[in-house]
Amino acid sequence: MSAASDLKSEAKTKPSSQLGNPDTKKEPARDMIAAADIDDGEQDDFHPGPRLWAIIIGLGVTGLLTALENTVVTVAMPYIISDLAMGDDYVWVTNAFFVCSAAVQPLVGQLANVFGRRWIMLASVAVFALGSGICGGAATGAMMIAGRAVQGLGSGGIGLLNEIIVSDLVPLRYRGNYIGVILSIYGVGTTLGPFIGGSIVATTTWRWIFYLNLPIAGASLALLFVFLRVNYRRDMTFAEKVRRIDLLGNGVLVASTVSILYALAYAGASYSWQDWHVLVPLLVGFLGIFLFAYTQAGGGWLTAAEPVMPPRLFKGRTAIIVSINTFINSALTFWAVFFLPVFFQAVLLFGPQHAGVALLPMSLVAIPGAALAAAAISRWGRYKPVHVVGFAIFMLGLGLFTLQDPVSSTAQWASYQCICALGGGVLLNSQLPAFQSTVPERDQAAASAAWSFIRSVGWVWGVAIPASIFNSRIGELVGSGLISDPVAAKMLATGGAYGAASAAQVEQFPDMVQAEMRWVYTLALRRVFQISIAFAGVGFLLSLFEDEIVLRKRLDTEFGLKHENDRYNRAKGIDAGTDSDPVGDGKDAAAGDVVQGV
């Protein structure tokens, strides 16, 4: 512990501005020791106050916007697809949202460091509201996809900044608790979302799913404008700030992600996996990912002054394992969320409102599971057992979904959901503290952005992969002659099965054809969930090889929300403004102030 003690002493005497400067050169090994061992046995000096709780609740209400949108659309999707005649382009209604949400997060992380948290959060909420308006007024499938892309840009910023601000305020050991509070409010949205979506579709037009976001966004903007005040140092010009942003890295990352997703969206439905329409964008996308990695690792003149995703974030076995498992957990979560409604509406022939209610066990159990995991990590400071148990339960729940069929009882499908949701909930907010534990405090914002990007990419693939499996399996089953009616067979073929996954679409045919269609849907969903078991198994095995890293109890960061007094800034000699000052005056810089007594 001598090395850790030396580092601890050094950290106490070193100016905060130097600790938070990304250009400060340190030995990578020393950074890892500081991140892992510096707080072993330290005293707990974290004392949350009412202002902290007010901020946390405010962030949760803002996250309610994206929570509602993530779930209400799943129930209404068949009606949107049918009304706008989208065909197999339906995957882009969700994929455009999630790919934009993922791609924008690394950039938002850099912008928040450069221009401060407040204005970037306000802009994110405004962009989300704009996208909601576009979706609500969509007259074509292309307009709907464009609106969902704009929504995704706003959603990505909101989700990431929630996590960054919590990291600014709360020591690593206890972050799970406060993220859990935000997730509890988020859980209200995910719980009510399917019911709200089903009720809207059953009683009025699906367009109100998007219009309802506008007053919520307006209230959120007002609250954030008044209460979210953030300090920042005024030591850089606007031009210097722009040079800190890795525009090339962000551009390559966005283009590569979109290219790969395009291939996944159409593989197995419109084109075979061997077709050039799939292979070319897939190859281009992966080449772009390698180029992005090259620019981040030191690609000569292509290297940015501050890479958007520096390689030091992924040094060590635990960082790599947690990154992979974050992707797997995120993908499997949306794997279930987007295909359970197909089971309820196309197999059990539930109406949209009934299907929304049927999804309640998933939401009602996931949030308590997340709270349980957060409490365990805060109490014992260990995340590895939580991850192992979480993946084991998640794998069991996904496996039980393969047993569902047209005669499954309510007790069966409800209990299967509860088991799956418990496993997913335990993993929900326990991955981020583990990832942040591998890096020092000065890299917390970058680590949050990288982790959020990985999570969002997992969401994208969690829709694209099962959709491709589902469409391919439907094509095989219809091609084998399992559906005798040519009209029904044509409706399900060529990627139309998801759009036709509603009781109204199935019940228009004679009883015998209905039975055939329901069985085809059952077999296709069975294949979808069989493959999900393998993904969960990989996550379980990888979690066994994580290292246990001590979670810090002390908050030592120059980033934070404005306090009622600025003793910290005066002591450090920092000329700090607030995010309420004009952004483009040529003087203001990144957010900078540690929270004391919040």
Automatic annotation (TrEMBL):
Major facilitator superfamily (MFS) profile domain ranges (all copies): 55-551
Positions in coiled-coil regions: none
Pfam families for the chain: MFS_1 (PF07690)
Subcellular location: Membrane
Annotated region (Disordered), positions in chain: 1-31, 571-598
KW Glycoprotein (keyword) present: yes
Domain of life: Eukaryota
Transmembrane segments: 52-80, 92-112, 119-139, 145-166, 178-202, 208-227, 247-266, 278-297, 318-344, 356-378, 385-403, 527-545
InterPro entries: MFS, MFS_dom, MFS_trans_sf
GO cellular component: plasma membrane
Gene Ontology MF: a single term: transmembrane transporter activity
Keywords, sorted A to Z: Glycoprotein, Membrane, Transmembrane, Transmembrane helix, Transport
Presence of keyword Lyase: no
Membrane-related topology note: Multi-pass membrane protein
Protein name: Multidrug resistance protein fnx1
Organism: Apodospora peruviana
Upper lineage: Eukaryota, Fungi, Dikarya, Ascomycota, Pezizomycotina
